[in-house]
Model the fold of this input.
Amino acid sequence: MKKFLIFLFLIIFLNFYIISYSLPIAYYENKVLIFKITGTISIAHYEALLDAINIAQKENYNAIIILLSTPGGSLDATLKMITLIENSPIPIIGYVYPPSSTAWSAGTYLLMACHIAAMAPNTIIGSCQPISYSPFGSTPINDTKILNALISLMSTQAKAHGRNETIAIKFITENLNLNDEEALLYNVIEIRAKDVNDLLNKIDGKEVNTIYGEIKMNTKNSMIVEYSFRLRESILNVISDPTISSILFLIGIIALIYGFSTPGHGGEIIGAIALILALIGMGFDINIAALIMMLGGVFLFIYELMTPGFGIFGFSGIILLILGSLFITPFSPEKWAVPSEWYMTFTYTFLFIAVLISSLFIFILMKIIQVRRKKPIIGNMIGDIVTSISDAAPNEITFVIYRGEYWQAKCKNGIKKDKKYKIIGKDGPVLILEEINEV
Done:
């Protein structure tokens, strides 16, 4: 009877487990993949989106939702991501989220390329006019070659998805900004949704055109899975941020100066690693003039270390490093699409950190220079007086006290305890003494 009850319990437990396990599968017969874009758009987002689309295709996801909260970013990366979206077999929904977020500039280009465009309450898109950047400010670009290329891109994407081409073009020509209500009113987006679940319910049943034909969205009650960046993309995403890559480059240059001036402390290794990471983050797209200025600053610093005084060469090196650091980021409008507000924040942040790091390393270098140019202490020992602490035979090595420290010493006439002697030379670590004739 006892065995029968145990057997019955196992049967009931097994049935309960199978039922409970199968319920979620039946309930979540559809899946959507969430792909987040926060911060500046970089090549890391392109590689991650490529991976996300492959995963969605292999695992039969019904849709990919790109959550946009970005000031913009690399236009090269954005164009590559637009190509991925256009050729995706899985419908891709662009969604400016969470509330109060922005999808400015490059973010708006991505939103216009998605099969469905949606925005959360109190979100903003626009500010797509290209900007020319310099350390002294930013000005709108009016070069027709650049403008026409970007206008054609924006217009084509809007037309392909049945959106308002006129307004889409004004994002560029007039630097127009729209909130979620205005974007829906002017037919720039299709959906306003308070959250992801609301979005899934509202797009359910809609038909979208993909490269493989028309697909009817089936997203209601879908299981939501968030895409996780792989380690490679996570690192690349961090170092691709213009602020981070520029600071890494500055640290690398100054660390190399420190390493060359004080070998054996690891400065060369830290500098090389920082420079490599910075170059990867910048995509090897560096302003040549800025690079020459920074390298010139390095050589002036090294030259200053080899010459007396900390004068014109050292301060010239400081000026070149600061100027080079201002120009080192690739700011050409063809490659970066961010609003002027973001640029000003970046400039002030980077300048503050650049000056702080430069000041720290300059202080260290000045201390090193002071130590190196200080008259050797051994040279000052000749003629000084020491006191013996023990007896010693002629030329026998014993210990004496010199400036509160124990030193080895010897004297050709021998040494007597508690007697004073004068230093007349040095043989390696051993002081050579001469007896003082006391009157």
Summary: Residues 16-28, 330-334 have pLDDT under 50 and may be disordered. The domain at 379-435 is CATH 2.40.50.140 (OB fold (Dihydrolipoamide Acetyltransferase, E2P)). The chain is about 50% helix and 20% strand.
